[in-house]
Design brief:
Largest sheet: none
Radius of gyration: 37 Å
Number of helices: 3
Order of helices and strands: HHH
Distance between the termini: 74 Å
Shape: rod-shaped
Length: about 130
């Protein structure tokens, strides 16, 4: 073997070893990235689970508030009028009055809108 052949063989062998080493590094980096991805997935699943719990509690609270508002509107005593009114005027007023359930639903919707704006305001401050 001549010196030129030895040098050429050494260059080829060195190049092959460099390729193998860089492939090893690439595999290690890929494993590390896969591990990070797995941990991120676990964290998002935990956050999603907590978010579902919060939403369930919120819907329960809203339902309780609706029931309380309906009960409050239904149980509210009607004021007796001291003045006598004509039957035509009372008939007009009776037709204009909204049912108690509709009024309670409207007030419950207003309450939930207020809650939603408060929550978004709090999130914006953080």
């Amino acid at each position: 073997m001549t010196a030129v052949q030895t040098i050429t063989l050494a260059i080829i062998l060195g190049t092959l070893l460099a390729i193998v080493y860089s492939l090893r590094i690439l595999v290690l980096l890929e494993r590390r990235i896969a591990r990070m991805d797995h941990h991120i997935e676990l964290m998002t699943m935990a956050v999603l689970k907590d978010e579902r719990k919060v939403l369930e509690k919120e819907t329960r609270i809203e339902q309780l508030l609706e029931k309380a508002l309906v009960a409050k509107v239904v149980a509210a005593p009607k004021k007796a009028s001291t003045k006598k009114r004509s039957s035509a005027k009372t008939a007009k007023k009776a037709s204009k009055k909204k049912p108690a359930k509709k009024a309670a639903k409207k007030s419950a919707k207003k309450a939930t809108k207020k809650k939603a704006t408060k929550k978004t305001a709090k999130r914006g401050k953080k």
